[in-house]
Amino acid sequence: MRTKPAVLDLIVATGFVAALMAGCAPPDSAPEPEVGSSFGTTPGSGGALLFQGARLILGDGNVIEDGALLVEGDRILSVGRTGEVSAPVGATSIDLAGKTVIPALIDAHAHLGYERYTSWGSQNYSRENLIDHLDRYAYYGFGAVFSAGSDPDDLAIELQQAQRDGDVDGARFLFAAGMAPPGQGPNNQFLRHALAIADETGMTVLRGAATEAEGRAHVREVAAKEIPFIKIWVDDRGGSQEKLEPAIYRDHR
């Protein structure tokens, strides 16, 4: 596992909070702070960090040159220009001159666990390698990554729970269950490795659906596991595989 620089780790964490505040807050949540405002800080409160001098890309189209960011714990308390953001007594000031701070990135389509620096395949797939991938994503500024249909269900569910419990760090792990015509799905090389993982772990990776009834049964099974996403492979890979019948992937009951 890589050792992440403390400042970078904080920037990634605060960027992710900014992204959540900007796009994911429920309607009845507290209002977002105005640029340049300060709230939730009291003189003498400990643990506050004031990042100053950076170029701040807010994610809503606005950019603050020579910006300041006040953070305490996992919350961004204030954003504005350097000299305009008030910090509590005892806050630690960190100079980020020449740096750029952005909201955390999101990888919306990945296949985690297969790559291992100089090789790719099922031989690399393990819980430890998945965690290493999540750590690397976080190191490079990603707040979340979506693994699309190539993970064993039960292992992926366990890893998500470990993150919620605080036992696993890294970028937030999201995944989809996989469904395709029986014995098919990704390109043939990828398919071979995905099926090998299913054999080695005894867990479901790809669900084969040849009929509407099978498709509905798979959807109900996935829903029972509280997996919110299903990746469905429809195409015939240039005639090398059977195309999934439209009635199967259009039926979502």
Compact description:
With 253 residues, the protein is an alpha/beta fold.
Map the helices and strands.
Blueprint: H1 6-23, E1 48-57, E2 63-72, E3 75-81, E4 92-95, E5 100-101, E6 105-110, H2 127-139, E7 142-148, H3 153-164, E8 172-180, H4 188-201, E9 206-208, H5 212-224, E10 230-232, H6 246-250
Parallel strand pairs: 1-4, 1-5, 6-7, 7-8, 8-9, 8-10
Antiparallel strand pairs: 1-2, 2-3
Fold and architecture overview:
The protein is built from six helices and ten strands, in the order αββββββαβαβαβαβα. With 253 residues, the chain is an alpha/beta fold. It folds into two domains: 96 residues, Roll (Urease, subunit C, domain 1); 146 residues, TIM Barrel. Strands 1, 2, 3, 4 and 5 form a five-stranded mixed sheet that branches. Strands 6, 7, 8, 9 and 10 form a five-stranded parallel sheet that branches. The longest helix is centred in the first third of the chain and has 18 residues. It starts with 5 loop residues before the first helix and ends with a helix. 29% of the residues are buried.
